[in-house]
Write a structure and sequence with these properties.
EAL domain-containing protein, binds calcium ion, single chain, 280 residues, 21% strand, 10 strands, eight-stranded mixed beta barrel, binds ligand C2E, alpha/beta
């Protein structure tokens, strides 16, 4: 039995060692991935329930790794946040979103607004986010109202006076702000009072059982009422079924995003999608 325990321990250490090596290798690769042009933005449509029309696209980063294939952000963004690579990656994402809006325009495609994710480490570590955004918009001739930044509650929780200034300058610029994963952090209400958001993204965890569970229904209804009172719109994240769509419509939620309408797609597939409408 003692041997068995020792073997398990060895196995455990070997596994930890493997994971650490893996992280270190990815961290080193991340460093070079921008100049090697290995990142790509996928876009997931956001649909207005009343009209059935696509009113926005969330940009979601992907890494075309030379040996590991397509990597999702949940694998590499946390590593990028600890190594500092998140700053150049985040800047790249903003630039790429603006470049893409320009490309669509030039092709005669009028894209709705594009939303870019800003992680907490990026927001904290970046001293001039508003300048980066302003420069990217100007460089590609994109109207500020075509761009939205998605911030999570964890970003706002750690927001200092300096960062509040940055948010205010972004607002003055005319860029839209959304609060992501709403309801998962604590004291969400105080952020709503302190920061002017255009849109509240209701976290998937409430949407998962909104068609079946009474508590989730009540929470979503409360969030929608709150948003209405504050003049913000609501979007439900991770919508996968027609039952959820029906319930969300009944609850007065403005928009939906999720696999039910479309998963995130490469930019090249978006023009075709924009012509589609949600049925019902
Ligand atoms: P998020 O901002 O909450 O993005 C929503 C995630 O849910 C995306 O995962 C999306 O593909 C997924 N999703 C959308 N609809 C459904 C659905 O109906 N069902 C299910 N099960 N999932 C759905 P993804 O693309 O893997 O991104 C994960 C997270 O990585 C994002 O969560 C965001 O926090 C972060 N992320 C993505 N792109 C960027 C980026 O450019 N910069 C930063 N800083 N973070 C990013
Ligand atoms: Ca998001
Ligand atoms: Ca989210
Ligand atoms: Ca989420």
């Amino acid at each position: 039995a003692k041997d068995e325990g020792r073997n398990q321990f060895r196995f455990h250490m070997a596994e930890l060692d493997r994971q650490l090596r893996e992280r270190m290798m990815l961290a080193a690769d991340l460093h070079l991935a921008i100049e090697r042009q290995e990142f790509e933005l996928y876009y997931q449509p956001q649909v207005e329930l009343e009209s059935g029309r696509i009113v926005g696209l969330e940009a979601l980063i992907r890494w075309n790794h030379p040996t590991r294939g397509l990597l999702l952000p949940t694998v590499f963004i946390p590593i990028a946040e600890t190594t500092g690579s998140i700053l150049p990656i985040g800047k790249w994402a903003i630039e790429q979103a603006c470049r893409q809006i320009r490309l669509w325009r030039d092709q005669g495609v009028v894209p709705p607004l594009v939303a870019v994710n800003i992680s907490a480490a990026q927001f904290k570590g970046e001293s001039d986010l508003d300048r980066i955004v302003a420069n990217s918009l100007a460089r590609f001739g994109v109207a500020p109202c075509a761009l939205e930044l998605e911030l999570t509650e964890s970003v706002l929780m750690e927001t200092t006076q300096k960062h509040k200034g940055s948010l205010e300058r972004l607002r003055q610029l005319g860029v839209r702000l959304a609060i992501d994963d709403f309801g998962t952090g604590y004291s969400s209400m105080s952020y709503l009072r302190r920061f002017p958001f255009d849109r509240i993204k209701i976290d998937k965890s409430f949407i998962d059982d909104v068609a079946t569970q009474n508590e989730s229904i009540k929470i979503v209804r409360a969030i929608v009422t709150l948003a209405e009172g504050l003049g913000m719109s609501t979007i439900a994240e991770g919508v996968e079924s027609a039952d959820q769509v029906d319930k969300l419509r009944e609850l007065g939620c403005d928009q939906i995003q999720g696999f039910f309408f479309s998963n995130p797609r490469p930019a090249g597939e978006i023009a075709g999608l924009l012509a589609q409408k949600l049925e019902g």
